[in-house]
Amino acid sequence: MEFRTLGGSGAKASVIALGTWLSHDGGESAHEAIKTTRRAYELGVNLFDTANEYQHGRAEEVLGEALRGVRRESFMVATKVCYPMGDTPLDSGLSRKHIMGQVDLSLRRLGLDYIDLYQCHDFDRETPVDETARAMNDLVASGKIIYWGVSNWDSEQLRRVVTLCRERNWVAPVTNQLQYSALWRLIEKRILPTCRELDVGVLSWSPLAMGVLTGKYTSGAPPESGTRAHKGVGKLDWLLAKFTDPQVLRAVETARSAAAEAGLSLAEAAVRWCLREAAVASVVTGASSPAQVEQNVAAGDLTPPVDLFDEIDRILRPVEARPPAWYPGVSELSTA
To answer: Which of 24, 282, 283, 303 keeps 20 to 30 A from 275, CA to CA?
Structure first.
């Protein structure tokens, strides 16, 4: 397994991370999620990503249970704060009040003494950036977190907070978790260059475009029972619909054939496609079974021919997804 540093930190993360967004939801599936997490660790994964809002805290609980008994120094847990955890005005955002309350709740659910990477799950336009950054700096000083990062922040927002932290000698964010795949490349024009310039590592989420880049969906055929396209993904159903457009699926099938000619599955090629970008520290992959995590981890050890990436770009660039007009930061993300 290859390891890369988390931005300007000294921590080395496995290039394949395990995400918990849709898999660690408790109930009957908790046992399988625990087995999957432990298998990932056995295979060399040392970064496990979750969030307080995933299943309203249940994902943190399941992840904590899965890692119980594992030597603490050998893995990193990344979780997040920002999205609503209740119905009152104080139950969301990046205010000092919300951050300080939620970090303790996350620690309790995870069963940990500290969080390795605490991430701002989104940008909060109603809270001063210096309030958020100071709260994070204080959490590092207290030992409750080791590093902090952001998620879905655009280049202007990222530059502002990093500059502020450096001016005040506060601990700056080391990562920015961003959606990135061969079907969602909107960060390439501005955000990726800014991350490289500021030495902020990118954690790419949804590298398989919600499963579409596994090649398991076929144009004209209804999605199989149990797949994300069949069950839906809630607030991102609009994006899943774009990824499963018949024209996109036909292009994905062509890309699958190209990967097969190079001796790879499309999923393996798609994960390595993200890792061709030096700013990407780790690729956050989901898995609902040990078999799936084994497939994802295998991609971390591959060295595909460079011309395969060129071929994937040629096939998928014309059908890459574009955000709707209401999407936050749409002007920043534009590749026009």
So the answer is: 24
Among 54, 147, 180, 217, the active-site one is 54
Tally of CB atoms within 10 A around 242: 20
Tell me, what CATH number does 110's domain have? 3.20.20.100
Q: What is the pTM of this model?
A: 0.92
Range of the domain at 133: 3-212+277-303
In a domain, 40, yes or no: yes
CA distance 142 to 226: 43
What 8-state DSSP symbol labels residue 286? -
Calculate Rg over the CA atoms of the chain.
Answer: 19
Residue 217 annotated as catalytic: no
The CA distances from residue 195 to 14, 48, 86, 136, 200, in Å, are 19, 21, 32, 19, 5
Query: How far is the C-alpha of 121 from the C-alpha of 19, rounded, in Å?
Result: 14
Taking only the tens place, the pLDDT of each residue in 178-189 is 999 999 999 999
Q: In angstroms, rounded to a whole number, what is the distance separating the alpha carbons of residues 87 and 43?
A: 40
**Contact at 8 Å (CB) between 282 and 47?**
yes
**Pure H helices in the chain:** 30-42, 58-67, 96-110, 129-142, 155-167, 191-198, 228-231, 237-243, 246-261, 266-275, 290-299, 306-316, 330-333
Buried b or exposed e, range 65-101, using 16+ CB within 10 angstroms: bbbeeeeeeebbbbbbbbeebeeeeeebbbbeebbee
> Cα 193 to chain center, whole Å?
18
